[in-house]
Amino acid sequence: MELRIDMTDEVEVVEKKAKLVNPEFVEEVIKAGAVSVNLCWQCGTCTASCPSGLHTAFRVRKLIRRVQLGFMDEVLPADDMWMCTTCYTCHERCPRDVKIPEIIFTLRNMAVKMGYMAETHKKAATLLVKTGHTIPLDDKAKALRKKVGLIETPLTTLSNSEALEEVQKILRHTGFDKIVGA
């Protein structure tokens, strides 16, 4: 009896993965500001410490490893890095002093330049451009403010058109409004 193994599917997967690898990606990430990315030795302390990882599919260690291996086409379009709350727990506990929030910020900036942004972040950014705030002030919030003795609309860009114009001017000057499509 002859044993035959069909490896066609496995070869296609390997070829597909090989096309996604960008060997220069990790160097681009380092040049963009995430200088400690190659210090990571994959111990998993970051993932085990991550509060977001307890409630989502976010795995810091997996993200860092994908960067190290050059999987740019997997990293930048993915919503994973947008799940990070930048609480710095991973950095505080890292035995190699890998500055993970710095890496996350760098990756997010690179992703946005390529047109990728998590939908929730895009909504918050759009609201910032329109109102000067990232969280809407709805009737429920106004009622709660009034109940605790505050004025319904805070003295911010929500009630000061000149302040809102200044914020919007800064956002236009930096190109933020164009980045988020607002």
Helical stretch tally: 12
Give the rounded overall mean pLDDT: 89
Counting helices, strands and paired strands, the structural category is mainly alpha
Q: How does the overall form come out from the CA principal axes? A: globular
Distance between the termini: 67 Å
Question: How large is the share of residues in beta strands?
Answer: under 5%
Query: So, the CATH homologous superfamily of the largest domain?
Result: Alpha-helical ferredoxin
What composes the largest sheet? none
CATH architecture field of the largest domain: Orthogonal Bundle
Percent in helix? 55-70%
CATH topology of the largest domain: Fumarate Reductase Iron-sulfur Protein, Chain B, domain 2
Low-confidence stretches: none
Strand-helix topology:
Layout: H1 8-20, H2 25-31, H3 45-49, H4 51-55, H5 60-69, H6 72-75, H7 89-93, H8 100-113, H9 119-131, H10 139-147, H11 161-174, H12 176-180
Provide the descriptors you would attach to this structure in a database record:
0% strand, mainly alpha, 182 residues
